[in-house]
Structures are given as structure tokens and as C-alpha cells.
Design a protein that fits this description.
With about 300 residues, the chain is an all-alpha fold. Helix content is about 75%, strand content about 0%. It has one domain: MetI-like fold (Orthogonal Bundle). Belongs to the binding-protein-dependent transport system permease family.
């Protein structure tokens, strides 16, 4: 009897946190686990364009996907997209965070202004940039005309979003623009945690500013930098509104990433689109795992 009472007490103690973590576990199950399971199941089903399941389709959806002539190019372009946007975002954010961490007149206003691209809708921002790049009435084309640079870019009919060679760099620029506020503020929060006496000790030792930044600031900023980069990798890989609003992945599939390609496939074959979703999901996991391995995040936890 005493042993049973002891076991019961241990069980009650173990279940004590359940009321606190239970809602979060249910939310994760409904919002994350269940959609992933459904997605994987759908990738093995034959589904009509109206969403009606027509039974099992085996591996045919994956076979059809991998046989798509544009599949390899889309996946490679997705990797280039993620690396380019995340790298530029982090590098520029490091500089901006360092700037906003200094005291200067109007710093508060500058910090507030930095939030604007983050507060605005990503879709709205993409549409505004698309309008500015319009070959006929776009503000950017007008500025290039006034500067005498339009002829070198193709004349009055120059369409920056109509050619892959110019469209992709513009898409990367817009993605970096909307990613900067979060990354900058994440790094700024990391800079605020670095003790001032560490910098004082470095100055007393005669360390230059560059040496101080490389040997003190960056190592101590590493936890915030890891989190900001990781979130950016996941967000950018799954980014949809910017590319879809500005180019629809055109011309051809020359600006389409895997997320855009998946959406386009949905219009003709939902099963194949689900297979592309599974590949997308796997790619995100692989990219995150590689990043965590390279960044040696466990050393930060320990």
C-alpha cells in the first residue's frame, strides 16, 4: 500500500507540468504535426484538380516530379536564393546593428524608421517594388532615364522583371529589404547584452577597433547571430509573396523557387504538388541541420 502511494505521488508529480505545456503540445500537434502527416499522405495519393482523392498512386507522384525538366534548375535556384538573401541580410544587418548601437542625433527616429519594412505587409512591399520597376511608369525607370542610364539597360522598353538576368537580383534585393529589420533588431539585442567592461579591457590592452570587433563582439554576438540566421534560412526558403507578386516565377521558371514551383504544380496535379511539398520540407530540415552543424550551436548551449 505504501509502495502504491509512492508510485501515485511520482505519477502526479510527473504530470504536474501538463496543464502548462498541454495547450502548447496540442497546438503543435494541430498546426504542425497533423498538416505534415496529411501532406506526406497526399504525396502518395492520386488527387484530382478539384481535390477529390482517387486512391493510392504509389511513388508515381515523386517519379513524375523528378522527371520534370525544370526540377533540377528550380532546386538549384532555391539554394542560390537562400544563400544570397540570408548572406546579404546578415552582413548588412551586422553593420546596421553596430551603427544603431552607437549614440548619435536622431538614433531613436532611425530605429523607428527601420521597423517600417517589417511592419508593412510583405505582399504590399512586393507590389510597390513591382510598380516602381514597371517599364512604362515605374519610378526606378524614370530615375534611370534622368540619370542617362536607361539606354545602357535596354532603352525605354527595358523591363527589369521581364528578364531572368535582371529579375532575380531585384527579387533578392526586395527579400533582403524586408528581412533587414528583424535581423538588425535581433543583433542589436545581442549587442546590448555585451558588458561594457569587456570593451574597456580591450582598449587598455591596446586592441584596435577591428581587432575588438573580431575577437570580442562577434564571438559574444554568436548566439543572437545563430538564431537570426536560422530563422532567416527557414523564412527565405519558404518565401512566396515576393516572387509570386513580382514575377509569378517567370519568364518560364527562371525566377521560380521550389515554393513557387509547388504552387504552380498545384494547378495541374495536386499529388505531384504534395510530393514537391515533402521535398521542400526535407530540404528545410537538411539546410537547418547543415547550418546548426557548421555553426556548432551546441557549444553555445553548453
Amino acid at each position: 500500500m505504501q509502495q502504491q502511494t509512492s508510485i501515485l505521488k511520482r505519477v502526479i508529480r510527473a504530470l504536474g507540468p501538463l496543464p502548462w505545456i498541454g495547450p502548447a503540445v496540442v497546438l503543435i500537434g494541430v498546426v504542425v504535426v497533423w498538416p505534415v502527416v496529411t501532406m506526406i499522405q497526399s504525396s502518395f495519393m492520386k488527387i484530382s484538380r478539384f481535390g477529390v482523392s482517387q486512391g493510392s498512386n504509389g511513388l508515381d507522384n515523386y517519379t513524375k516530379l523528378f522527371d520534370e525538366p525544370d526540377f533540377g534548375g528550380v532546386m538549384f535556384r532555391s539554394l542560390v536564393w537562400v544563400v544570397a538573401v540570408v548572406t546579404l541580410t546578415v552582413l548588412i544587418s551586422l553593420a546596421l546593428a553596430q551603427l544603431f548601437n552607437q549614440r548619435f542625433p536622431g538614433r531613436r527616429i532611425a530605429r523607428w524608421a527601420m521597423i517600417a519594412p517589417w511592419a508593412a505587409s510583405v505582399l504590399m512591399t512586393a507590389i510597390i517594388f513591382k510598380w516602381m520597376l514597371d517599364p512604362e511608369v515605374g519610378l526606378i525607370n524614370m530615375i534611370l532615364h534622368d540619370l542617362g542610364l536607361l539606354d545602357a539597360l535596354g532603352g525605354a522598353d527595358a523591363d527589369p522583371l521581364g528578364r531572368a538576368s535582371t529579375a532575380m537580383p531585384w527579387l533578392v534585393a526586395v527579400a533582403v529589404f524586408v528581412s533587414l529589420p528583424f535581423t538588425t533588431y535581433a543583433l542589436l539585442a545581442g549587442l546590448a547584452t555585451i558588458p561594457a567592461d569587456v570593451y574597456e579591457a580591450a582598449r587598455m590592452d591596446g586592441a584596435s577597433r577591428l581587432r575588438t570587433y573580431w575577437s570580442i563582439t562577434l564571438p559574444l554576438l554568436r548566439p543572437a547571430l545563430t538564431v537570426a540566421t536560422l530563422i532567416n534560412v527557414m523564412n527565405v526558403f519558404n518565401s512566396f509573396p515576393i516572387i509570386w507578386a513580382m514575377t509569378h516565377g517567370q519568364p518560364g521558371y527562371s525566377t521560380a523557387t521550389s515554393t513557387i514551383f509547388m504552387y504552380i504544380l498545384k494547378g495541374t496535379d495536386i499529388g505531384e504538388s504534395a510530393a514537391m511539398s515533402v521535398v521542400n520540407f526535407g530540404m528545410v530540415i537538411v539546410l537547418v541541420a547543415i547550418f546548426l552543424r557548421v555553426s556548432k550551436w551546441k557549444t553555445e548551449v553548453s
